[in-house]
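User: I'll paste a sequence; please echo it back and then give the predicted structure.

Assistant: Echoing your sequence first, then the prediction.
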Amino acid sequence: MALYTLHIGNKNYSSWSLRAWLLLKELDITFDEVMHPFDPVKGNQAHFEQFSPSARVPCLVDKDLTIWDTLAIFEYVAETASVWPADKAARAFSRSVCAEIHSGWDAIRTLCPMNCSLTIKTESLPDELQHDVNRLSSVIEEGMRRFKGPFAAGSRFTGLDAFLAPMVVRAVGYQLSLSPLSRGYLDHSLRNPWLAEWIRAAREEPWREPHEDEEGLRRGPLVRDYRAVREL
């Protein structure tokens, strides 16, 4: 029997859902996945508030407890599972980066919305987006250098890698320029079988978020739409 129920949004677009889903998969925690497609016409408020107090995803249900917001889910799961590194310094670094992503990096989240299906040749970056890309590269480099990899905070997958996963998808999909060490981390992350499974499922979804696709395409010309392969 599944330990939890995890409510998520579209896999192609929902970066926060990916974080919680990937963490549970990597920790081998059983859960029932409940998909709630975004409605670009009517909106999500009325439907999502039926299971989530914030009317947002992801939302974790543990019997009579409901935990909403990704960071809260991570800390709740950490009470009974190894979400964070055992090393104190690595743990402090991981929590700091996750909190920074959670409260900031608005430019990369807004101007490069996660899209698992599109590859876009980014031609120019506004200053605020370049700042976030530089910061992404910097935190990956710091983690790899300090804690020796191959994961962002040491030798095993932790909550930091789950938090970075949507940024990996963005960096690859928008062909963002990162340092060689950071690119090595991206390559290693993409070999994660659970992340690969998420991306495959995302590309098979029938739902579209036109605004999200259009925002992404403002960064540059389309190189490939992986959904089109299935639809031809």
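The mean pLDDT is 95. Residues 4-78 form a domain with the Glutaredoxin fold (CATH 3.40.30.10).
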